[in-house]
Write a structure and sequence with these properties.
alpha+beta; 2 domains; 3-stranded antiparallel β-sheet; 19 helices
């Protein structure tokens, strides 16, 4: 019996040894260097040592001292990392064809392989046109806004009311994840999992999605041959990932079979209007593409919005004056609604058309996204040698990393107060309009040909949720603990966000 992967296994063990020894050396040193360039392993040991503060390490220890762009190598793999807006515009817009996601990216996120999330070129353009057609359907947009409003009214507000009445703290990170998971299961599959309930049942599918993003970060950091060996041997994080991928495929299979069996939605006992109904009879998606497409929709909706909402409430709990400004903006609308309903003590919820006009509320959302982008790092590959606007040269097969987290903390872009949470920076001088910021300086919704198709509906959903909570409840931090982030491709909170919410006295 021949072990064809033995050379890769030996190299993987060597790299692991270098990482462990290097990390121990750095940890035992009183003054460890922010980026030690080790033989073979490059800066990998330093990176591993600083994983607990990964994004601050990248922003302040790597990119800031190097002028916002840096070249380095790990096990002979060349990297170019940047947070310089001129480079970002070049990569995502001016010369975007030279910087695809690449084959290795598709392997890292193989559960979504073939979907718009992993493909490039003509396949991406074709799928993007399909996605745009689905997401622009008036009936689907109506479903998305209606489901959001119903979830807030019948799920979120009653749950928070119960927690406030019993004087119980709320884990806002877990609560928002459950809310958005239910919301997008309804939108995509036409079923409501009802995971937002008082007993808070386990969310196995949502946990599987988290695993995909957590192991995805490991695959980004560890040389490909290392994680591929672990995948082949079914050990370590790859074993956990395989189980998570099985859960996701089983879930989508069940949803597809249920649809084909019943032929209608559970949410709306009528002709299907959800996302699945747009794909289930499409011959282009009848093969292996349907599953990764549905998983991509779930991750695009649940992970981005579910990751953003806790950071918004974190910032609001730490900045009561911002909450007061939001309420001032909401007051005229809420007063009219209360007068019409003649129920000033009732829970007040905004309609989609009312949400659109809330400029200051949107500024608070954008400011949270600036400091805490749900996807903190973007990855691209290089097709042909090129020169960046900053003068850095990249070669074919290089890997390009764009730190969105660092862009939001650039003093050259956002001013001396770039570390502060200040929604006013997004407003015109008279405070009535949003100030335009080009996407290469604010990458939360991507940039160029890959600009987020669901941006507008996501903003409406987030504003609907935040407005309902802020108007009806006082939000306070339970304690002053620092918020750590998970080791994930998403900027999720590691230990949740414990808040105290009390019914507001009007």
């Amino acid at each position: 019996m021949t072990f064809s992967f033995l050379p890769e296994l030996l190299i993987s063990m060597f790299v692991l040894l270098v990482v462990v020894v290097g990390s121990y050396y750095i940890k035992s040193s009183k003054n460890p260097l922010p980026a030690v360039d080790w033989p073979v392993a490059g800066i990998l040991p330093s990176l591993v040592y600083n994983l607990h503060r990964l994004h601050d390490y990248i922003a302040f220890d790597l990119l800031a001292p190097s002028g916002h762009s840096l070249k380095f190598a790990i096990v002979n793999i060349r990297f170019f990392m940047t947070c310089e807006p001129a480079n970002i515009q070049h990569i995502f817009t001016s010369n975007h064809a030279n910087y695809p996601k690449g084959e290795e990216f598709a392997e890292i996120f193989d559960v979504m392989r073939g979907s718009i999330f992993t493909v490039d070129g003509e396949s991406c353009r074709r799928q993007r046109a399909n996605y745009q057609g689905v997401l622009s359907s008036p009936r689907l947009v109506g479903l998305m806004t209606r489901c959001c409003r119903d979830k807030v009214e019948k799920g979120l507000l009653p749950f928070i009311t119960h927690m406030a009445r019993t004087n119980s703290p709320v884990d806002m990170a877990d609560l928002m994840t459950r809310l958005v998971f239910d919301l997008y299961a309804s939108i995509i599959f036409g079923v409501d999992p009802a995971r937002l309930s008082l007993d808070m049942p386990p969310v196995h599918v949502a946990n599987a999605m988290d695993t995909v993003m957590e192991v995805g970060l490991t695959r980004h950091i560890v040389p490909a041959f290392c994680w591929k060996v672990m995948r082949r041997l079914n050990i370590g994080p790859e074993r956990k990932l395989a189980a998570a991928q099985a859960v996701l495929r089983c879930f989508t299979t069940d949803m597809i079979m249920e649809r084909r069996k019943n032929g209608h939605t559970i949410v709306a006992q009528e002709e299907p209007v959800d996302v699945l109904s747009s794909y289930i009879n499409d011959p282009d998606y009848n093969g292996d593409l349907l599953h990764p497409t549905l998983i991509t929709y779930m991750i695009a909706g649940r992970d981005t919005i579910g990751t953003t909402l806790p950071w918004i409430f974190y910032n609001l709990a730490k900045n009561p004056h911002v909450v007061s400004s939001i309420r001032d903006e909401l007051a005229p609308i809420m007063s009219r609604k209360a007068a019409i309903a003649n129920a000033s003590a009732a829970m007040m919820i905004l309609e989609p058309e009312e949400v659109k006009a809330l400029v200051y509320l949107q500024a608070t959302l954008l400011e949270s996204l600036r400091l805490y982008p749900p996807v903190p790092i973007e990855r691209k590959s290089v097709v042909a040698a090129d020169v960046m606007p900053t003068g850095h040269e990249v070669c074919a097969l290089d890997i390009v990393l764009i730190s969105l987290y660092s862009v939001g903390r650039m003093e050259a872009v956002w001013g001396a107060d770039c570390q502060e949470y200040r929604p006013e920076r997004w407003l015109s001088q008279d405070g009535r309009k949003l100030r335009f910021v080009p996407s290469h300086k604010f990458m939360a919704f991507n940039s160029g040909p890959r600009l987020c198709l669901g941006k507008d509906i996501a903003i409406i959903q987030i504003k609907t949720i935040v407005a309902a909570v802020v108007w009806n409840f006082d939000v306070k931090m339970l304690d002053d603990r620092a918020i750590d982030t998970k080791l994930s491709c998403l900027l999720q909170m590691k230990d949740g966000l414990k808040l105290k919410l009390n019914k507001r006295e009007m």
